Amino acid sequence: MDRFEAMRTFAKVVETGSFTRAAQALHINRTRATHLIQQLEARLQVSLLNRTTRKVSVTSAGALYFERVLQLLADLEDSERDLAQALASPSGRLRVDVPSPLASRVLVPALPSFYARYPDIQLDMGVGDKTVDLLDESMDCVVRGGQIQDQSLIAKRVGELHLAIYAAPSYLEQFGTVEHPKELEGSAHRMVGYLWEHQNKPFPYALRRQKERVCLPDRYGLAVNDGNAYLAAGEAGLGLVCLPEYLAKEAVQAVSLIALFPDWTMDPMPLYVAFHRSKHTNVRLRVFIDWVTEQLSQVS
To answer: Which residue, among 104, 76, 105, 53, has the nearest Cα to 3 in the 3D structure?
Structure first.
């Protein structure tokens, strides 16, 4: 039984004094209206209406219940109206934390569109790749690549990043060009390591082409834990780098990085917005997540 529909039907029957008129007002058939009232009375274990062939009247218990139902329905309508208004014009402070490359190259440049929609939201944006404790640092949400490890958080997938392998011209001049990923298995080549905080070690990347799979070398002379520094290290020729295509785009256009193995693919990196369960009703957070999802849908 839909309790809300049953209560609304009961209230309409009392107001109109007729099952037929109540059903017409609610755009349901009379049989449905009768069945809902019967279910409601069975749940409450009390008779709410007196029925005769000529009229329907409310019992004393029904009259008491009717007053409570009217208040509940009115409160629900107020809540829905308030929510609609809040969604139309959310306001207040929202504290978020996003990776530095994603902030500088995607989200911050797009913020004029966010403020055009939500001019009354005050956005405090922490920028960095370090994991943030949402409770200790009083954050509303974080945007992060890769799986969210904290099981106490709600993680909403908002997009994915397509990855590829890049090298600087200076690196290729020093160590030689490569045509096949297996050429990287020797001791001549090395990666720039990216330190994922929850592992504190470089991530083992792999390339695929049909049934072939080649793991990239884990040798490195430098490992960093910041996306912008990782990009800079690749451009400086310190090793091969595995970058999201959006992050490498400008460097490729400037020929400070060259994409390798164009006919090979890598598993995309999922992007999540993570937030504490207590924040799931925050209207500001909801519209921010929708906006972030929209921006990431435009990132290759």
So the answer is: 76
CATH at residue 189:
3.40.190.10
Residue 252: C-alpha distances to residues 175, 206, 243, 287, 293 (Å): 19, 21, 11, 34, 26
Structure tokens at 138: 């009083």
From 69, 88, 107, give the residue that closes a domain: 88
pLDDT value, residue 89: 78
DSSP 8-class letter at 89: S
Strands 121-127 and 92-98: parallel
Buried b or exposed e, range 50-67, using 16+ CB within 10 angstroms: eeeeeebebeeebeebbe
For residues 270 and 157, the answer to whether their CB atoms sit within 8 Å is: yes
Res 87 pLDDT > 70? no
d(CA 290, CA 103): 16
Local confidence band at 204 (pLDDT 50, 70, 90 cut-offs): low
Report pLDDT digits (tens) over 45-80. 999 898 877 778 889 888 898 888 888 888 887 777
Q: Are residues 109 and 226 in the same domain?
A: no
Tokens of 248: 């490498």
Structure tokens at 218: 């884990």
Residue 187 has pLDDT above 80, yes or no: no
pLDDT digits (tens, 9 = 90+) for 211-233: 899 888 878 889 998 899 999 99
Looking at residue 86, what is its pLDDT? 63
Q: Which domain holds residue 105?
A: 92-161+270-296
Last residue of a domain, one of 88, 119, 142: 88
Whether 258 contacts 168, CB under 8 Å: yes
Residue 201 identity (one-letter amino acid): K
Average pLDDT over residues 31-36: 90
Cβ proximity of 102 and 143 under 8 Å: yes
Question: What CA–CA distances, in Å, run from 128 to 49, 132, 175, 224?
Answer: 64, 9, 32, 12
